[in-house]
Amino acid sequence: MSPAEQNAVRQSARNGWLLSVPALLVLALAASGPLLIVVYYSFLTANDTGGVIRQFSLEGWRGIFLTYDIFDEEYRLADAHLTIFWRSVWLSLTTTLVTFAVGFPTAWFIATRPAQQRAMWLFLITIPFWTNLLIRTFAINEVIRNEGILNTALIWLGVIDRPLQIVYTETAVLIGMAYVYLPLMVLPLYATIERFDMRLLEASYDLYASRWRTLRRVILPIVKPGIIAGSILVFVPSLGAYVTPRVLGGGKKMMIGNFIELQFLQGKNWPLGAALSVTLLIIVMGALLIYVRVANRDRSSDHG
Amino acid sequence: MIKYGDELGVSVADAVTISARNVVKAFGQGAGTVRALDDVSVDIRQGEFFTLLGPSGCGKTTLLRLIAGFEMPTDGTILLDGADITTLPPNRRPVNTVFQSYALFPHLTVAQNIAFGLEMLGKPAAEVKARTAQMLALVKLEAMAGRKTSQLSGGQQQRVALARALAPQPKVLLLDEPLSALDLKLRKEMQIELKRLQTETGITFVFVTHDQEEALTMSDRIAVMSAGKIQQVGTAKEIYIHPRNRFVASFIGETNFLTGTAEEGALRLATGERIEVPGLKAGGHATVIVRPEQLRLGPAAEGVLRAKVGSLVYFGTDTHCHLALADGTELVARLQNPASGEAGLGEGQEVGIRFAEGAVQRVED
After folding, report:
1. What angle do CA B22, B24, B26 make, to 5 degrees?
2. Mean pLDDT, chain B, as a whole number?
3. Do B111 and A222 touch (CB under 8 A)?
4. Nearest Cβ partner of A304 from B92, B96, B111?
5. Are B309 and B321 in contact (CB under 8 A)?
6. What tens digit of pLDDT does each residue of A60-85 get?
7. Are B117 and A208 inside 8 Å of each other by CB?
8. ipTM of this predicted complex?
9. What kind of fold does domain B254-363 have according to CATH?
């Protein structure tokens, strides 16, 4: 390549950089900026009327794990906080599993329809997404509440004689989240299953594999990228879920999202809220790192 | 061992591995029903290289899929070593398939692909390992054991597919047009390779192809299929020399057809000329065939038939001479080229045609 050509290439690469400036600005202002402010606030002192006082303090971070007992005048382990963290992680994992258990057959069903029907099925799956989250959550509430459709039907059928207490339990939160996030699992699963070569099923049966072993040894390993993508798309927003646990958990079964809100509004403890937000971010990133690493380890072990 | 041999007209000495009896396979329902297989009965003998040959849509692949268990017949039975396997699912049949698309598992290595069937059969790890190594050696892919199948060439993928299907030592190996995706040179190599594998392993091969040359060179016996029916079963020679009907004669090799009125021991053409056909009975319409290489050309006065030379096409080893009879019937003669060059014929020349002894055969329409 002549020096002139090299210069031209370098020039166009520089121009390419310039073109990405708007995107970089948006990233800096809309993503990193607020995040840095949250980190900054977590190290300041709480103002009892809301907001922060610009004075360095570790109270916010300490507040995540410890509470100050005003009677004994000492710090105690904040087991209520840990319960909320644990519940958030547990519910998010279960939600991911439930959406997978329901979403995989759904995605398989759609991917095995004739090509011209698939778009319609995908459309049906995504319709709920077009409605406001709050409204969908209240709709679920309408189904599962004590005088709701489900209980009325079960009592009328004589299956139960007293309404099942579903609403305001963890089960209610789980049902709500699984319903809301199901499309996020189905879509990436569909994308990988659609590319799956169905002739491999015949090859597997031909080589003495039962249906179950074909699923485990052939289908699941091949559609794994879709499972990983779907799980991340469901797990991450589940962990930060706010509306669903608020409406269906009735404020009793709080998740991290509700707990953070509590600190910023009623609690007037912005540093603690900020520290909790950062902690949530760390949990999500940690979970993703572990997940991706485990997934990649499986892939490299395939090389023998 | 085979008790039904007599009634099917099969010699009892030839042990039958696969037997299809009155198999019907219909696709679709109502008026749109298509009979992919229409009352097919065939016996495939143990250890033979059996080829199902026919144009696309003749039902050959359907018959293969019925033997593999991917489809259930609408009617009829399929026996394996005398036992009814008609409704057995594919994973419970000791039969393996080499797929046209190979259908190798993309997430597994070459060795893992080959080991798959053995593992599913629950063989002990040591046996799986030993057998996989043996199979890798058989198809000469030892160096590729740890590779992903996507890193292999078409010919190598083909060999992995073969090794994978042979590893569990099936009673029958089914091959669904396995060579169609390969280029000509590789296909020739694989034909020899397949034949070698079949001889070495002694496993019964059922091979599906639409390529008559492939069928003729590799098979012990061939079943020529058309329109969901088996037209003729026999060795390559039997089918080429004594085709039973017009379809078989035209599908296998090149053929000249002559039609006319049957007389006692001869055929009277529309031109008034008469060809001797031993054994032909008088009465009605008849068709005979002559292969192009069985035509001899000479002076116009000496031939059985008189013809005019149309075009001459030079093919190196031989020349194809297109001839027209007085009534316009076209014939092709394949003449071996003399060392000096061409056959020494000119376009428009009047010639006399004679036929080699026994070359004129009657066929059903």
Report:
1. 175
2. 88
3. no
4. B111
5. yes
6. 898 888 877 777 777 878 888 888 98
7. yes
8. 0.82
9. OB fold (Dihydrolipoamide Acetyltransferase, E2P) (2.40.50)
Work out how many CB contacts closer than 8 A connect A with B. 75
Domain ranges of chain A: 1-36, 79-301
B106 in helix, strand or coil? Answer: coil
Residue A247 CA to its chain's centroid (Å)? 18
Q: Do B146 and A304 touch (CB under 8 A)?
A: yes
Closest residue in chain A to residue B169, using alpha carbons only: A207
Residue A201 distance to chain B (closest CA, Å): 9
Q: Can you give the pTM of this predicted structure?
A: 0.81
CATH topology of domain A79-301: MetI-like fold (1.10.3720)
Q: At A204, is the secondary structure helix, strand, or coil?
A: helix
Please name the residues between 132 and 161 in chain B that touch chain A, using a CB distance below 8 Å: 145-146, 148
Tell me if B321 sits within 8 A of B297, measured CB to CB. yes
B5 pLDDT above the threshold of 70 = no
Q: Please, what is the Cα angle at B283 between B277 and B286, to 5 degrees?
A: 50
Contact A220, A105 (CB under 8 A): no
Residue ranges of the domains in chain B?
A: 16-246, 254-363
Structure tokens at B100: 């046209």
Q: Which residues of B touch A296 (CB under 8 A)?
A: none
- The answer to whether B107 faces chain A, any CB pair under 8 Å, is yes
Residue B341 has pLDDT above 80, yes or no: no
pLDDT of residue A74: 77
What pLDDT score was predicted for residue B14?
67
Residues in chain A within 8 Å Cβ distance of B97:
202-203, 206
Max mean pLDDT range (A282-291, B69-78, B298-307): B69-78
Nearest to A206 among B68, B112, B145 (CB): B68
Look up residue A216 and give its DSSP letter: I
The Cα angle at residue A212 between residues A209 and A217, in degrees rounded to 5: 65
Four-way CATH pick for B16-246: 3.40.50.300, 3.40.228.10, 2.40.50.100, 3.30.70.20: 3.40.50.300
Better pLDDT: A297 or A304:
A297
**Does the distance separating the beta carbons of A222 and B91 come in below 8 Å?**
no
Interval B190-204 mean pLDDT: 90
Q: Which residues of A touch B (CB under 8 A)?
A: 197, 199-200, 202-210, 213, 217-218, 221-222, 302-304
What whole-number distance in Å separates Cα of residue B157 and Cα of residue B264?
58
